[in-house]
Amino acid sequence: MTSKSIDAVEMTDAERVEVKSGYFATLELSNSMWRMSQRRLARERTEQLEREQREWQQKQAEAAANAQKYAVEPEPTQAAEAVTEPVAKAQTEPAMRLILEVEVTVEQRNNLIAYLKANNIHGVLKRS
After folding, report:
1. What is d(CA 10, CA 41) in angstroms, rounded to the nearest whole number?
2. Pick from 14, 40, 69, 104: CA 20 to 30 A from residue 94's CA?
3. Neighbours of 108 (CB within 10 A)
4. CA gap 57, 51 in Å, rounded
5. Are the beta carbons of 15 and 40 closer than 8 angstroms?
């Protein structure tokens, strides 16, 4: 009778096997059904979180692509002035210590490091 009750409930084949094995091990149908429903809820929540994470990663990739797409390269003469002017100021102005925490891609990190080196800005890079 109980096996027929389990078969009558709407669930996947894997869940049905799980409930039957739990029932036959404990002979408590309600506990077996409750455990199966809790695992189902946990599985659905995990799937939802994974979907949200994929969407977030896709948005981050799109934002990075858009930022790169719309980035304006300075003209060569402006670039030369931009590099020499901060270096000259850095030598005459007192040094300051700045702590920045940013979220970047590997490519953005490499571009940031190249910019800092080009402007004679030195320090320590720490990952969090």
Report:
1. 15
2. 104
3. 14
4. 10
5. yes
Query: What is the token pair recorded at 21?
Result: 């094995």
Express each pLDDT in 43-62 by its tens digit: 889 999 999 999 999 988 88
Using alpha carbons only, give the angle 108, 117, 66 rounded to the nearest 5 degrees. 20
Asked if 40 and 18 count as a contact pair (C-beta separation under 8 A), the reply is: no
Q: Compute CA distances 39 → 16, 34, 92, whole Å.
A: 13, 9, 65
Among residues 111, 45, 109, 115, which one has the least CA distance to residue 86? Answer: 115
Kindly state the average pLDDT of the residues 93-109: 81
Q: What percent of the chain has pLDDT over 90?
A: 11
**DSSP letter (8 states) at residue 6:** H
Residue 87 is inside which H or E element, if any? helix 76-92
Query: Three-state SS for 99?
Result: coil
Tokens 């309600």 map to which residue? 30
Q: CB of 84 within 8 A of CB of 120?
A: no
